[in-house]
């Protein structure tokens, strides 16, 4: 009689994903990894990919878009929350409002929502926004607000943001997004042409200027340019 090995539970696959990020990619960010350990990535990928939801790669989510590789999510999240000191007691959610541009599957928003008070996320493809909203509701995430629209204009009704995260590739950041950022706030985005971008963290300084730090190279799906906020 053949005895099949037991299917690996998603919990242990998730632990393995975290181990890899910490040990192989050397990203030691306990709070980000702790958050990622709580998010069921298999719920954000297509049905056909449930078994490879924890693989070390980006996966298609339809409409030509992808859910980012786990390490990329960890790295970007760390660039947003890494510098924020843990409060001595009470809530660990020091950042009040973070804007994500490019909801995609909703996975990055779910990870962020465990680390900040409110996540506002914009998606230009209505079908993806609708699906992400449904997934996030089903899983019980209450502090994520999804809206269909182009990130180019940000979310003026909810300004100012402590941080802005762009998960699509663009050559330059629209000025309006810097206007919607608090002084001292950070904007993290993959900057560069279609073929390759450099992960960049901008910090809005008191004198109105912007400081810029550059990290690794990545390839993201492109940011879609639109003529109006509705996309
Ligand atoms: N953060 C996502 C992955 C995003 S992929 C996740 O966790 O799954 C990038 C997303 O940005 C795509 O869904 C794409 O449709 C969206 N996008 C591209 N240009 C945009 C724009 N101008 N405004 C809002 N969303 C945009």
UniProtKB/TrEMBL annotation:
Assigned EC number: 2.1.1.77
Top-level taxonomic group: Bacteria
Top EC group: transferase
GO terms assigned for molecular function: protein-L-isoaspartate (D-aspartate) O-methyltransferase activity
Range of residues in the leader sequence: none
Entry's localization field: Cytoplasm
Main location: cytoplasm
A Pfam cross-reference name: PCMT
GO BP annotation list: methylation; protein repair
GO cellular component, one term: cytoplasm
Positions of the catalytic residues: 68
This protein's UniProt keywords: Cytoplasm, Methyltransferase, S-adenosyl-L-methionine, Transferase
CDD domains documented for this protein: AdoMet_MTases
Recorded catalytic activity of this chain's protein: [protein]-L-isoaspartate + S-adenosyl-L-methionine = [protein]-L-isoaspartate alpha-methyl ester + S-adenosyl-L-homocysteine
Functional note: Catalyzes the methyl esterification of L-isoaspartyl residues in peptides and proteins that result from spontaneous decomposition of normal L-aspartyl and L-asparaginyl residues. It plays a role in the repair and/or degradation of damaged proteins.
Family per record: Belongs to the methyltransferase superfamily. L-isoaspartyl/D-aspartyl protein methyltransferase family.
Protein name, UniProt field: Protein-L-isoaspartate O-methyltransferase
Lineage: Bacteria, Candidatus Woeseibacteriota
Gene from which the chain derives: pcm
């Amino acid at each position: 009689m053949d005895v099949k090995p037991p299917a690996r539970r998603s919990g242990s696959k998730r632990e393995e994903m975290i181990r890899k990020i910490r040990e192989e990619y050397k990203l030691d960010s306990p709070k980000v990894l702790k958050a990622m350990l709580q998010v069921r990535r298999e719920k954000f990928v297509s049905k056909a990919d449930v078994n490879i939801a924890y693989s070390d790669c980006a996966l298609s989510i339809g409409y030509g878009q992808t859910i980012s590789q786990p390490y990329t999510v960890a790295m970007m999240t760390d660039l947003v929350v890494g510098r924020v000191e843990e409060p001595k007691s009470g809530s660990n959610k020091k950042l009040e409002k973070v804007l994500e541009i490019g909801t995609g599957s909703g996975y990055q928003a779910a990870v962020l929502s465990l680390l900040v008070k409110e996540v506002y996320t914009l998606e230009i493809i209505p079908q993806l926004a609708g699906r992400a909203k449904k997934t996030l509701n089903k899983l019980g995430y209450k502090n994520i607000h999804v809206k269909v629209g182009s990130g180019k204009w940000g979310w003026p009704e909810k300004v100012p943001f402590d941080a802005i995260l762009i998960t699509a590739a663009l050559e330059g950041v629209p000025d309006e997004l810097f206007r919607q950022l608090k002084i001292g706030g950070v904007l993290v985005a993959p900057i560069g042409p279609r073929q390759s971008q450099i992960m960049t963290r901008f910090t809005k300084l008191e004198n109105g200027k912007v400081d810029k730090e550059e990290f690794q190279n990545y390839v993201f799906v492109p940011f879609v340019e639109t003529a109006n906020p509705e996309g």
